[in-house]
Amino acid sequence: MNYHFFVGNDNGNSEHDLVIDGRLIQQPNVNCRVDELPWREEQAPESFVANLQDQLVVTIDSPAARPGMYYVGKFALESGEIIDNLQIGIDSKSDMDLPIVNTLAQIAAAAVQKAYEEEKAIPSEIDLEVDMATALPVTQHTDETSARFEKRFTSGTHHVTVHLGLRRVAVRIVFPFVKVVPEATPVIFTLQKDASGSWREGEIFADFAETYNIGKKFNGSFFKDKRILHVDIGDGSTEYPITEGNRFLRQFVHGSHHGAGYAIEEALPEFNRLIHLPDSPRQFFSDVIKNPNHKYHARALKTLRRPLESQVKQIVQHAKKQLTKARNEIDLICVYGGGSILMRSVLYPYLKEACDEREIKLLYIPAEYAVELNAMGLDAFVHGKIYEALKSKAEQPA
């Protein structure tokens, strides 16, 4: 079986968000290497397909990563094994195996699901060609690091065995072209257009339109020529790029090692003490925070309040630095990313005051869109004319 996928791939420190073949997939960005399958008994392979991302076990044989068997995402997090994750502020994504392994695993799983959907049978092998856009933090993104990260995907064939119980599906993945862009910049595409290419409208802008009395007919065309300071708050870093229309202004590259992950790591020892655990991973704490019904939710929030305030103050200072550098010639500050959800109640008033003083508008993306904006933007980019032109140029003989 042969497929061609377009993939927008946002490898976050805490969460992995990908749009594969038009479908959004969100998983904890963790994995663990194991020596054997978790299943002993034969189970119907079909029973794995629907929720494959939540029970993802793969064997990787790739020129870009250490070979072996891996539990990926939620299955790794819940396995009790020692997990590998991105160390915030320490790891360089372009050099690590984790983003490679998890990307290959998620793409292979999506291919198995597509094949089953179309053929109503489990294939034995799949050949897959992938066009992909992904990103690196602006603090790590240089011509050299982006070229190195691209090459890890494009140099050779990646062999992924997807395990459906004791049944195996061999997926061969080739990337003819990959483009690595600075994180946060793809969001300009998402703010303007929806998946069908029309001007974006709807709930994502409801609060903004009401705050500034812009009217019900408001849509993404508003952003097409605006100068925007992005505040993209992740787990381990916050990016503050400035864009104008569809252009990324290279002279304003700035990122800082602040984010929700630092607050969580600071809160984690006290949280573990309160729930009588010797240790627990950062992603477990994140899951507890996201779930208001979790029995430990109130305790997690309590331990997080003070560390969060300290991170917020740092982020506000860095945003103000960027405004000063741009001489306040900014139309709009746009805030999003997984960390922005946790920080909203503390961060919004600080930024709103700074914006009002400088006659700048503040677009604080609602929680239900905040995490996926980068992946959606990367998906829009990989389908767009700029990507097409870059790919054509790369294919021309030197």
Automatic annotation (TrEMBL):
CDD domains the record matches: ASKHA_NBD_ParM_Alp7A-like (cd24023)
Recorded superkingdom: Bacteria
InterPro entries: ATPase_NBD
This protein's name: ParM/StbA family protein
